[in-house]
Specification:
By secondary structure, the chain is of the alpha+beta class. 46% of the residues lie in helices and 23% in strands. The longest helix is centred in the N-terminal third of the chain and has 32 residues. The chain is elongated, with a radius of gyration of 25 Å.
């Protein structure tokens, strides 16, 4: 027969087990919640571009992606070619505004596209810094696109 002290000890062990199980449940809920987190702005930009140009035969790689307010500059490569895309957020949705090569890494071009001079300067600076972290064979492809091309919200040339 158990004594009162033994009953208290059994109760404490059961209580500790319950708290441990609750802690595990909370940790599990936190980690599975993080797996279902909303995509980042960079992920949304990459997805918007891939929805247009990605294919199994020619996968689109989008990097780097640099965001400045409602504008973003994304480098991309696809097989042996590449370039840059200027995107604009409209009503919370990222849309390609211009496609180009080295010309999109120019403050004057970005201001003509609607950016303020200060924002364009920050975007060019931050984009150049992000591109410098990539291998040279990747960034060399960004120059292969050629002249800048304005695109409307349906991704058709103006």
């Amino acid at each position: 027969m158990k004594t009162g002290s033994q009953h208290r000890q059994t109760f404490k062990v059961a209580l500790h087990g319950l708290f441990f199980a609750m802690a595990l449940f909370i940790l599990f809920a936190m980690f599975t919640g993080m797996a279902h987190a909303a995509p980042s702005e960079a992920d949304r930009i990459s997805q918007a571009m891939k929805a247009i140009w990605d294919s199994p035969e020619a996968p689109l790689v989008v990097e780097p992606i640099v965001i400045e307010g409602d504008y973003a500059l994304a480098g991309w490569t696809q097989l042996t070619r590449g370039g840059r895309a200027l995107l604009k957020s409209r009503h919370g949705e990222w849309n390609v505004h211009m496609c180009g090569g080295d010309g999109l890494n120019d403050v004057e071009t970005l201001t003509m596209a609607g950016m303020s001079t200060e924002a364009a300067e920050r975007l060019v600076k931050n984009s150049s810094e992000a591109e410098a972290k990539l291998p040279a064979e990747v960034t060399a492809k960004f120059s292969t696109f050629g002249d800048n091309m304005v695109v409307d919200h349906n991704h058709q040339p103006d």
